[in-house]
From TrEMBL:
Listed name of the protein: Tumor necrosis factor receptor superfamily, member 9a
UniProt GO MF annotations: signaling receptor activity
The keyword Membrane belongs to this UniProt entry's keyword annotation: yes
TNFR-Cys repeats by residue range: 45-83
InterPro entries given in the database record: TNFR/NGFR_Cys_rich_reg
Domain named TNFR-Cys: residues: 45-83
Source organism per UniProt: Amphiprion percula (Orange clownfish)
Disulfide bonds: C62-C75, C65-C83
Keyword match Lipoprotein: no
TM helices/strands, residue ranges: 12-32
Length: 166
């Protein structure tokens, strides 16, 4: 078996009794035949509307952004469509395969894809984040704690300390 340099869409070509055998190693190309007489017929680019990320014999259909999703980036032979969500909604997972309402400050997302107010003793000062527990103490002496709310942590207020005359 002899090793030859490969055309652009083939990684390695081995010549042998079966003719030429190859492995397609460039994304955007799928394997048509593992071996054959003509190396150019072993791999082919994905058809329009399809893409491929792994080296296999079929291309995947491009994702379509549906419902609350908005189109962010076109599908190419080497990458799937990128979807986002309409204003007021956030991607529900890393692939953005669904959208959920964006939780505002003073709220947190729930497992059923809705929002709930921060429970007592917690706050959230950012959009679409988990509520955090209030701090339990002030950083300086002679400060008292004023209770926080769903939007803000506790407040530390200076306390007047009576002066001692000697």
């Amino acid at each position: 078996m002899s090793l030859n340099f490969a055309p652009a869409n083939l990684t390695s070509i081995y010549s042998g009794a079966a003719g030429v055998c190859s492995v397609c190693m460039f994304v955007g190309n799928r394997i048509v035949h593992k071996c054959g007489k003509d190396p150019k017929e072993l791999c082919t680019p994905c058809e329009p509307g399809k893409f491929i990320l792994e080296f296999k014999d079929r291309c995947d259909r491009c994702t379509r952004c549906l419902g609350a999703q908005v189109h962010v980036k076109d599908c190419t032979a080497t990458s799937d469509t990128v979807c986002g969500c309409k204003k007021g909604q956030t991607c529900g997972n890393t692939q953005c395969s669904f959208c959920v309402d964006t939780c505002g400050k003073g709220q947190e997302p729930t497992s059923d894809r809705s929002c709930r107010p921060c429970p007592d003793g917690t706050y959230n000062d950012q959009s679409h984040s988990k509520c955090k527990p209030w701090s339990t103490k002030c950083p300086k002496p002679y400060q008292k704690i004023e209770k926080g709310d769903a939007f803000t942590d506790i407040k530390c207020v200076n306390v007047s300390v009576p002066s001692v005359n000697v």
